[in-house]
Amino acid sequence: QVQLVESGGGLVQAGGSLRLSCAASGVIFGIDGMGWYRQAPGKQREWVAGITSGGGTNYRDSVKGRFTISRDNAKNMVYLQMNSLKPEDTAVYYCNADVRVIPTSRYTNYWGQGTQVTVSS
After folding, report:
1. What is the mean pLDDT of residues 5-29?
2. Most exposed of 25, 30, 61, 109 (fewest Cβ within 10 Å)?
3. Average pLDDT value for residue range 92-99
4. Pairing verdict, β 91-100 and 77-82
5. How confident is the model at residue 105 (pLDDT cuts 50, 70, 90)?
6. Angstrom distance (rounded) from CA 113 to CA 79
């Protein structure tokens, strides 16, 4: 069984920074794409940033230049460095990853349980 566990959320003032981490654990034979999503109260979950196994990155427009996604393939971890935070970044942030749990299997998508990020004005 694969688990994704996020950490690093919290309360920060506007303009501040936070660094989210997500650790994948369990029987893992490889991780393809990894990413971060967020869900604000009363809104649908939205994609924030993604990173390929080769390190290629992509961001939603509203976080470009402020957020940076990275990964450590040796540790099965993905990170989200969030700078210049705004109140509209307030949400529960979820880690997502495509994981291979059997050497010859296809990748299966997994979600973390989420970590709360609150940005005060």
Report:
1. 97
2. 61
3. 98
4. unpaired
5. confident
6. 15
**Residue owning tokens 């993905």:** 78
Q: What is the Cα–Cα distance from 121 to 116, expressed in whole angstroms?
A: 16
- Two tokens at 61? 């427009």
Tell me: the pLDDT tens digits for 57-82?
Answer: 999 999 999 999 999 999 999 999 99
**Nearest-angstrom CA–CA distance, 83 and 57:** 17
Q: Which long-range contacts (CB under 8 A, 24 or more apart) does 9-13 make?
A: 9/93, 9/115, 9/116, 9/117, 10/116, 10/117, 10/118, 11/118, 11/119, 11/120, 12/85, 12/117, 12/118, 12/119, 12/120, 13/119, 13/120
